[in-house]
Specification:
With 355 residues, the chain is mainly beta. The chain contains 1 helix and 28 strands. The strands form 7 sheets. Strands 1-28-27-26 form a 4-stranded antiparallel sheet, with no helix packed on it. Strands 2-3-4-5 form a 4-stranded antiparallel sheet, with no helix packed on it.
Length: 355
């Protein structure tokens, strides 16, 4: 009897240890309470302690303790405005852009206590879709077309002033525009490259590419991602070897498993479809991890790519074959300077993964 009881305890201990080692994808994210029910679509992660996020109803939140507490730093007069583009240099200095009317960019140097309007456009079609910075001083903004012409702005003084980046107006196709779903349909990288993922028009999704800071543009067809009123490219990320991954699909069909990812071959200069299994649905954000994460429960080794959407998150070693990482719903992903991962989404949801 005693021997049987000892055997039972041994098996229970083994089962407990196995469960700890083979954690589920759901446990990849530690959810941190924000105290808001807003839809969060802007995210800037500085490190595992410090991050800023923004979204609907003028919501703007910052944390300096890994999400244990959040400080609300809303901007007066924007209580019903969408904030979807954000960049932060520190816990004190940040810049945000509205999505819709009023079309403005705001800068704060005291953690959001006071704000300065650094750009304003009163045109009724003005709508900012994304904002990214090459470095501490040089930034780029793009928005929906005004009279079918690309809205593109540049700052060279840490966001203090914004001017049109183009020598001449660049005309988009009828209905064509970007998606302000995650502040990541815009991608910039050194020295002066700008990539913009588009949708809205019928046909194949498009990427606009500029290698001179937005002065001149070329188009790149992305045949594996269809474009339409609710479909196209929603997010871009670039790997260490120059490969680029585009994710998206149709946000009206969240569970659609086709037409939601493409890979850019930097050697051949063309976009390709997947060779393996794709993500589990429409995806609005993708990130590249220069320092990969080992996902033990996946039995697939190191992970370099993670994408997210309304029905969950996926991961991949090479962006060619994806597996389900978590069924947590997020709009946006971000990787901080220390390698920690942040995510945010609907109903004030924020997730954190620390290595």
């Amino acid at each position: 009897m005693c021997a049987d009881r000892r055997l039972v305890w041994i098996w229970m201990f083994i089962a407990w240890m196995s469960a700890g080692q083979a954690s589920t994808g759901q446990e990849f994210w530690k959810l941190v309470p924000t105290g808001t029910n807003a839809s969060l679509r802007g995210l800037c992660a500085i490190d595992q302690k410090t991050a800023w996020t923004c979204g609907s109803q003028g919501t703007l939140l910052g944390t300096i303790d890994g999400g244990q507490t959040w400080t609300q730093r809303g901007i007066e007069g924007l209580e019903s405005t969408e904030l979807r583009s954000i960049h932060a240099w520190s816990a004190d200095e940040l810049i945000v852009a509205t999505a819709g009317s009023p079309c403005r960019i705001y800068l704060s140097k005291d953690a959001g206590r006071t704000w300065k309007i650094v750009y304003e456009n009163e045109h009724p079609q003005a709508f900012i879709d994304g904002m990214k910075f090459w470095d501490d001083n040089r930034g780029f903004v793009f928005g929906d077309p005004i009279d079918e012409k690309l809205m593109a702005l540049r700052s060279d003084d840490r966001g203090q002033h914004w001017l049109s980046s183009a020598q001449q107006d660049y005309r988009l196709r009828p209905g064509e525009a970007g998606f302000a779903a995650s502040n990541s349909s815009l991608m910039v990288f050194e020295p002066e490259s700008v990539w913009i993922g588009l949708g809205g028009a019928s046909g194949a999704a498009q990427v606009l590419i500029s290698d001179d800071g937005g002065l001149n543009w070329i188009r790149s067809d992305v045949e594996s991602i269809p474009s339409g009123k609710s479909s196209g490219i929603f997010s871009l990320a670039r790997g260490a070897q120059g490969q680029v991954v585009a994710v998206g699909g149709d946000y009206m069909q969240a569970d659609g498993k086709t037409g939601n990812v493409a890979l850019y071959d930097s050697v051949g200069g063309v976009w390709q479809g997947l060779k393996g299994k794709g993500p589990g649905g429409f995806r609005s954000s993708v990130i590249y991890l220069s320092e990969p994460i080992r996902i033990e429960q996946s039995a697939r080794g190191l992970v370099h790519w993670v994408c997210a959407g309304p029905n969950g998150c996926d991961a991949s070693a090479d962006a060619q074959d994806w597996f389900a990482l978590s069924d947590e719903s997020f709009h946006v992903l971000a990787v901080a300077s220390d390698g920690s991962l942040w995510a945010c989404g609907a109903k004030g949801r924020v997730g954190l993964h620390v290595r």
